[in-house]
Write a structure and sequence with these properties.
Blueprint lengths: L9 H24 L1 H11 L2 H23 L9 H26 L1
């Protein structure tokens, strides 16, 4: 990949994506393990998966803008390749958490 300059929101929202991928997996585990969490999420929007999506989207946007506020221009030299690896690591970690949970829980 070419070393192109990234926008001021690309890196913060990339980090947010990686973090939210892991938090998403923890939320799946929490819903599966706790009937009270699942029923609370059911009551919030009518279906637990809708609440799940709303929570993760709010966290994604909140983390992204929070990280963007902390990001000073020129302070980080995160390349596109490094950011792609960070996002990939977050997504793989989330998948492994969910897969591990279902392999162990069943």
């Amino acid at each position: 990949m070419q070393d192109q300059p990234l926008s001021k929101y690309t890196v913060p929202f990339g980090w947010s994506l990686a973090i939210c991928a892991v938090l998403n997996s923890f939320l799946v585990v929490a819903k599966e393990k706790s009937k009270s969490v699942n029923s609370w999420m059911q009551r919030m929007t009518g279906h637990h998966w809708i609440t799940h999506v709303v929570i993760i989207l709010i966290l994604f946007v909140a983390f992204g803008f929070a990280f963007a506020q902390m990001n000073r221009p020129g302070a980080t030299k995160t390349t596109a390749d490094r950011l792609a690896n960070i996002v990939l690591a977050g997504v793989v970690a989330g998948v492994l958490i969910i897969a591990g949970f279902y392999l162990i829980a069943d």
